[in-house]
Amino acid sequence: MIPAISIDFASLNIGTLAPMIIAIVGALVILCVDLANKKLDKSLYIILAVLFLIVDLGTLLGYSGDVRGMFDLMLIDGIAILAQSIIIIASILFILLSFTKQRFNEQRYPEYFALYLFMIAGFQFMVSSDSLILIFVGLETSSMALYTMIAMHNRANAIEAAIKYFTMGALAAGLFAFGSLIFYALTGTVEFGKISEVLVTSDFENYPLVLLGVVFILSALGFKLSLVPFHVWVADVYEGSTASLAGFMSIVPKMAGFIVALRFFEIFVSSGNMFVEAILIAIVVLTMTIPNVIALLQKDINRMLAYSSISNAGFVMSAILIGTTHATTAMFLYWILFLFTNLGAFAMLWLNRNKDYKTFRTDHDLDKYAGLINLSPMTAVIFGLFLLSLAGIPPFALFWGKMYLLGAAVNGGYIVLALIMALNSAIAAFYYLRPIVYMFLKEPTIDGVKYMENATITSKVVVGICAIFTIISIFFIQNILETISYYIQISGY
């Protein structure tokens, strides 16, 4: 007779699940409220989503229990807390951009906001585990919700974007599953810590298979992080989405992907594995350089920012390659500063969207913003501020992120990589400054174009928060670094 399994409920440490459970409960509450009354104003669902995310963040920051939970599947270390905080804060800012004067198709449905919370829970699971199985579950939960949210925009190119993103995601899921299978076959475990222990102890026995597993996992993460050569459809996906959702996709899913990559590649970087390091160097250099060159050719600001975000992902991947505590700190600093700067830039596109002018080739054609300083000076100044920060012009936010990341590369002995990063920053400055030239130095191409027609007080506040942070972050860089360093050190990185 099989003996009964006795599980001590306290040992499960359910508190590790609390932040994700709050997001999931929030999604279910939105669906239940809609079932009870379908005539409620959709603004209620935005408020509910924000409230649940605030409670989610409070629960996360207030957590003080054991690091491990749920049969050791959950891992709430300092890096998980830091990454979840970035994800939730970015998610709150994004969902508030749904308060616009124009009501778009997807925002008519409560399911949109429920899917949004399910997606956030998926990302939280990804960064809060070192188990390949739970990471896979979080990856698919977030991806399925995001595909649907893109398609709900209900434009021809939105459906195309959703299909392309689904195709990329399906391939990534298969690659991740095969990679996980290989590492389980080699080590008998799916936890990163134990995989590392077995591989190092055996001196990377069956090395060709190990490399094959690395290629599979890297390819899967490459789709999620838009790394070259897995970036091909990214600009199409961003163009088919709303500008605000494109801004969200450029920040939050990548934060989750970076944490998975950090935990996984730490196995090989810490042991000085030359072949894996060579693969990472190639991916990082290509991802920084190729999208930068393509961005130079873009006439649409949305597509330009899409390729820019791919290049920025390459910058951050360099921190994972370097593998030092300094580099890991630089990664988080860069992405926090990038969060406010890039979200602000995409938000400006979102608030300036209108359907009245068919003369322009696209919704965010460069010509649309020609002479903006004469027509809407404040809009031009704020938009210019975000572009200058993305270009790395001092003293604005992202300059400090770039400098700290370059310092990490130099201190880690990657001098050539640092030079390539500096060169790519110079290339990026050119295409970031081009819209500024259009806004400040050119005359309007069409009379009567109106700007900020989609803006409300709430959405203006979100843009204002991003703009203020972009300017005054110089005074808080040291405080941000100290906070990041604290959480990284307690995680052992």
Structural key phrases:
71% helix; 493 residues; mainly alpha; two-stranded antiparallel ribbon
How are the SSEs placed, and which strands pair?
Blueprint: H1 18-36, H2 43-61, E1 68-69, E2 74-75, H3 78-96, H4 110-127, H5 132-151, H6 156-187, H7 192-201, H8 207-225, H9 234-240, H10 243-249, H11 252-269, H12 274-295, H13 301-322, H14 325-351, H15 372-375, H16 377-390, H17 397-411, H18 415-441, H19 457-472, H20 477-491
Antiparallel strand pairs: 1-2
Helix pairs in contact: 1-2, 1-4, 2-3, 2-4, 3-4, 3-11, 3-14, 3-20, 4-5, 4-11, 5-6, 6-7, 6-8, 6-9, 7-11, 8-11, 9-13, 10-14, 11-13, 12-13, 12-18, 13-14, 13-17, 13-18, 14-16, 14-17, 14-19, 14-20, 16-18, 17-18
Question: How would you sum up this structure, described in words?
Answer:
With 493 residues, the chain is mostly helical. It contains 20 helices and two strands. It has helices at 18-36, 43-61, 78-96, 110-127, 132-151, 156-187, 192-201, 207-225, 234-240, 243-249, 252-269, 274-295, 301-322, 325-351, 372-375, 377-390, 397-411, 415-441, 457-472, 477-491, and strands spanning 68-69, 74-75. Strands 1-2 form a two-stranded antiparallel ribbon. Strand 1 (68-69) and strand 2 (74-75) form a beta hairpin. Helix 6 (156-187) crosses helix 9 (234-240). The longest helix is centred in the middle third of the chain and has 32 residues, at 156-187. The termini are far apart. The mean pLDDT is 87.
